[in-house]
Specification:
With about 100 residues, the chain is an all-beta fold. It has strands at about 5-10, 15-25, 25-35, 35-40, 55, 60, 70, 85-95, 95-100. The protein has a single domain (about 5-100), classed as Rieske Iron-sulfur Protein. The protein is built from no helices and nine strands.
């Protein structure tokens, strides 16, 4: 277990948005869904698009390259539930958002 790594401040990520962060050399997408924070692998399984740059609609992010949609709370693809990206544990400490791989 890598332990938790600070990736941003809560105030850096507005509700309804996401961003790509680096966690120990791995690209991770972090999202703020109505004040709850979630982290998934940043790489779409279709063609490698950056999910952290995708449009967030509720808890669903659409890959900016080809529109594949994932539930950021589970990492599950909306069209085919057998297709997933990794989901990571998030914890908040004050204004800090921390992610563990």
């Amino acid at each position: 277990m890598a332990g938790f790594v600070k990736v941003c401040k809560k105030s850096d990520l507005a509700a309804g948005s996401g961003k790509t962060v680096d966690v120990n050399g791995k690209a991770v997408a972090v999202f703020n869904v109505e004040g709850a924070f979630y982290a998934i692998d940043d790489t779409c399984v279709h063609r490698g698009g950056p999910l952290g740059e995708g449009e967030l609609d509720g808890k669903i992010v659409a890959c900016p390259w080809h529109g594949w949609r994932y539930d950021v709370t589970t990492g599950v693809n909306q069209m085919n539930p057998e297709v997933t990206v990794s989901k990571y544990e998030v914890k908040l400490e004050g204004d800090d958002v921390l992610v563990s791989l």
